């Protein structure tokens, strides 16, 4: 690569960091300047993420090794210096993060960015942490970026105040502090044994450990795996999620939808680099598969028992984590491509659903407090003369209510993975790929494959039942249903995320092909290792020549 393209890998971290720092210098009363700076930042991040995605696909020419870009911070060569690595997997996660971030930001400008202080800088810092976690090439900076987006999420979770947010926030903070401690302990042990924290270098040195150090390394990896499982909301470490995510304001909960996937990403990344060495028992597929099934069962029971719509979405996230852990725990990489497709679809859907849940609350007569605040924020006059209590099925449905009903129906279909949308495409690809995995003794699908199929079908049926009951309660209850007033800034991001899922269905072929290539590159860790060690050593991607 030549010129300014050399510096693209650093921009997803540098841009939100500088924007957030500048926002802290501005007073909250200067909302137009804060909002303009926020949209400038996310626009640049989106352009950079899409460009990096095309570069990893080979559609934009570069001198990257195996379409993997390495950026050296401070011009220090790997494995001694800090490196950012852009491959197909990290590029996909960058694009997914910023799409979700833009939609959440648009939604927040209708009301939520004005109910507390420092919303916009915290929003930028959480994007900075997420982008950095997907780009970093060493474990210590993975810990650093984890702490950046978690620290920002603590403030955003409490945004808007309220006893419920404070109570849920304390649980959320406590659990994540414990997870951060485990992460730091494991990183310290790994460095003490191997003398390196560079992921590519670990992929080399882990297979060269003697028996004594190997046991200590496996212990460290087990602790590291537990820390990642906390982030991934895996059972039994996910009790905190439904309350915390349901208590957060809608745009914050939308951005939270991808935070659990950072744990999944870390497990996939470390597993792909360390499994070939035979050293890390903690990243073996057997334990991931078993924990995934347990998470699926927990999520299925939770979604059947839950009546609160916000918590229902939280259990949907737990179901998606269970599905991903189970599928990724299967042998080989046959299910990796479909799993990544499922990850994209589930993140977009649950992100839209969190925003939709808040809008749907306005249809309930006992949600007058939410409505009155919204009327004031939008500069609307509340219609106190119209009585909607007598509305029954068959009466003409106002546009706002029709939008909410159609969006809820679409979200339910997507989460339940029913045809014809992207959720169904993902589940069908997962199930068909699972059934193709044969047992050498039986010459047919293995027991693990059948358990995955049964668990996914059961969770899908449970989701249909739970969301069906919720839809009937929310939209067919004539005694409490009233026509809501919505802002166009709230309707647009919900529509964009749902239309993105529909677009995934239409272009499922090319997307699945790209994700299959991503899976193949993960199955060959030498591509990543050679790109970091060889390419960095030759300084072909140094920022500043």
UniProtKB/TrEMBL annotation:
Q: Where is the NADH:quinone oxidoreductase/Mrp antiporter transmembrane domain?
A: 137-438
Say where the protein is mainly found. Answer: membrane
Q: How does it sit in the membrane?
A: Multi-pass membrane protein
Matching InterPro entries, A to Z?
CPA3_Na-H_Antiporter_D, ND/Mrp_TM
Identify the keywords attached in UniProt to this record, alphabetized: Cell membrane, Membrane, Transmembrane, Transmembrane helix
Q: Where is this protein localized, as stated in its record?
A: Cell membrane; Membrane
Q: Which residues cross the membrane?
A: 6-26, 33-56, 68-86, 93-112, 132-157, 169-193, 216-237, 244-267, 287-305, 312-333, 339-360, 392-416, 447-467, 491-512
Q: Which family does it belong to?
A: Belongs to the CPA3 antiporters (TC 2.A.63) subunit D family.
What name does the UniProt record give this protein?
Monovalent cation/H+ antiporter subunit D
